[in-house]
Amino acid sequence: MNPNSSPLTDLLRHGYTPGQDAVVDAYGRQFTYLRVSVTDHCNLRCVYCMPEEGVPWLPRDELLTFEEIVTVIEAAAACGVYKIRLTGGEPLVRKGIEKLTEMVARVPGITDLAMTTNGIMLGEYAPKLAAAGLKRINISLDTLDPEKFKAIARRGQIGDVLGGIRAAAAAGLAPIKINMVVLGGLNDTEVAEFAALTLDRPIEMRFIEYMPLEEAKGCAMGSGNFAFIPNDVTKTRIAERFGALEPLEVGDNMKGPAEVWKIKGAAGRLGFISAMSAPFCKACDRLRLTCVGEVRSCLLDGGGVEIKSILRGGGKCADLIAAFRNAAHLKPEVHKAWDEIPAANMSRIGG
Ligand code: SAM
Ligand code: SF4
User: Fold this and answer.
1) Which residue of 117, 181, 217 sits with most ligand 1 atoms within 8 Å of its CB, as the best mutation to test the pocket?
2) φ and ψ at residue 198, rounded to 5 degrees
3) Considering the domain boundaries, does residue 23 fall inside one?
4) How many domains does the chain have?
5) 85, 116 in Cβ contact below 8 A?
6) Of 61, 137, 201, 261, which has the fewest beta carbons less than 10 angstroms from its beta carbon?
């Protein structure tokens, strides 16, 4: 693909309307959301995601360049995608991430640009990202206890993440969502304490069920150092402390896989992401771009469609759109059950 000509600009020149080529799968789900893994590298080693020694990092030239990522996003915008989330691995360890953010923010048709980060480097990056056009941010934090942080993340300092959350708020990134993967025997006793953070802060606290992906599968089922906690247990524990939770209707920019509730009178809200106990596949409108240039329609199932050869082999925007359609075709109605989930690497695919 010619890096000097934008596929979307080329299409617009021929009277094309962004979104006219909607990608719809066999079950009628239209894709409007692309999650982009910008790197497989990470500065933490969360027990549910990576082994302590890390995974073999991919060579630099295997990762998509910023220009290639933006080309894919332009083609996606042409198909009606308007939401982008930059993730990884840890997106902030990709050098120049603020530059990529700015390039993505400029793509016509992209109106919702978000990021998921572990927050370690956010103190430095939050103002740069906000200035580059990032709108909102999800920050992962699994515990409020410094010792448990060492046990779960195995690298980094909890103080940096807390500073990163403050920096994101100061930079005007909103809403801020905090992601907690609930792990039995490790952090499950803290769910009410996390929920209490929403009492006087306009944040969304999201309780995520652990998903058995590759290394994580070994952690939970092999060495058995934590147990799966379904979200109805988490919700009950929170309600025992704060009383019956109130269900919420959410606006479009807050819609997602989370079932959203709030504690009566709280400033913030509670999101429950129950991928294993109550899959939200029926409403799933997302495609994923892996850091090596594969398009996937499901994190836990289906295959990927390789597009790096299109990007590096002189392909056209129409070839990318065809690849999106092929990926959509691979999307299952509902993802596989626990034991059948194929080996997959969260940090490469993008969580
Ligand atoms: N490094 C960034 C971070 O941790 O926020 C972005 C990538 S991470 C793969 C994205 C999200 O996936 C994080 O909120 C993380 O907690 C979650 N995650 C990773 N492995 C998971 C697993 N096995 N089950 C459920 N969530 C997981
Ligand atoms: Fe890194 Fe995020 Fe995986 Fe933790 S969950 S190891 S921070 S990619």
Assistant:
1) 181
2) -85, -10
3) no
4) 1
5) yes
6) 61
Host domain of residue 336 = 7-15+30-349
Q: Which atom of ligand 2 is closest in space to residue 50's alpha carbon?
A: 6
Give a yes or no: residue 21 inside a domain.
no
* Claim: this prediction has a pTM higher than 0.85: yes
CB neighbour list of residue 102: distance below 8 Å, 6 or more residues apart = 132, 133
Q: Is 49 in the pocket of ligand 2 (CB under 6 A)?
A: yes
Residue 271 lies in a domain: yes
What residue type is assigned to position 7 of the chain? P
- Kindly state whether residue 24 falls inside one of the protein's structural domains: no
Ligand 1 atom nearest the C-alpha of 87 is 6
5: left (phi over 0), alpha (psi -120 to 50) or beta: beta
The amino acid present at 151, given as its one-letter code, is: A
pLDDT in tens, the chain (351 residues): 544 556 556 655 555 566 667 888 777 888 899 999 999 999 999 998 888 888 888 899 999 999 999 999 999 998 889 999 999 999 999 999 999 999 999 999 999 999 999 999 999 999 999 999 999 999 999 999 999 999 999 999 999 999 999 999 999 999 999 999 999 999 999 999 999 999 999 999 999 999 887 554 544 443 457 889 999 999 999 999 999 999 997 654 445 677 999 999 999 999 999 988 877 777 778 899 999 999 998 776 667 899 999 999 988 888 999 999 999 887 777 666 656 655 556 666 656
Task: Return the CATH number at 183.
Answer: 3.20.20.70
Residue located nearest, by CA, to atom 8 of ligand 2: 89
> What are the start-end ranges of the H helices in 79-187?
97-105, 122-132, 146-153, 158-170
